[in-house]
């Protein structure tokens, strides 16, 4: 049986995003990046909602994403994805 891991960024008061899908409050620092890489190395498939997938698909294959964060970009671009 396969497992599902939830990797979710949410504010303490329960918000996933701000107005107009603003996620500028996400704190992506070295500690977060290490955690993300560890998580991505443990899975073989990513499960996304449509809107989140569209945001990811428009960012991770870009030259900026690949040069800014090559490890995460490589994993995000190579892992299988299911979009619902």
Task: Provide the descriptors you would attach to this structure in a database record.
mainly alpha, globular, 2 strands, single chain, 4 helices, 10% strand, two-stranded parallel ribbon, 84 residues
From the helix content, strand content and strand pairing, which structural class follows? mainly alpha
Q: Report helical residue fraction.
A: 40-55%
Mean pLDDT: 91
User: Which spans have pLDDT < 50 for at least 5 consecutive residues?
Assistant: none
Report on this structure:
- The chain is mostly helical.
- It is built from four helices and two strands.
- It has helices spanning 30-40, 50-59, 63-68, 70-78, and strands spanning 45-48, 80-83.
- A two-stranded parallel sheet has the order 1-2.
- α1 runs parallel beside α4.
- The relative contact order is 0.16.
Topology:
Elements: H1 30-40, E1 45-48, H2 50-59, H3 63-68, H4 70-78, E2 80-83
Parallel strand pairs: 1-2
Helix pairs in contact: 1-4
Summarize the structure.
It is built from 4 helices and 2 strands, in the order H-E-H-H-H-E. The protein has 84 residues and is mainly alpha-helical.
């Amino acid at each position: 049986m396969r497992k599902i891991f939830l990797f979710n960024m949410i504010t303490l008061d329960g918000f996933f995003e701000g107005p107009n899908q603003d996620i500028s409050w996400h704190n992506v620092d070295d500690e977060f990046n290490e955690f993300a890489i560890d998580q991505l190395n443990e899975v073989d498939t990513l499960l996304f909602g449509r809107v989140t997938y569209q945001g990811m698909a428009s960012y991770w294959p870009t030259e900026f994403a690949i040069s800014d964060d090559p490890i995460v970009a490589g994993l995000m671009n190579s892992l299988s994805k299911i979009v619902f």
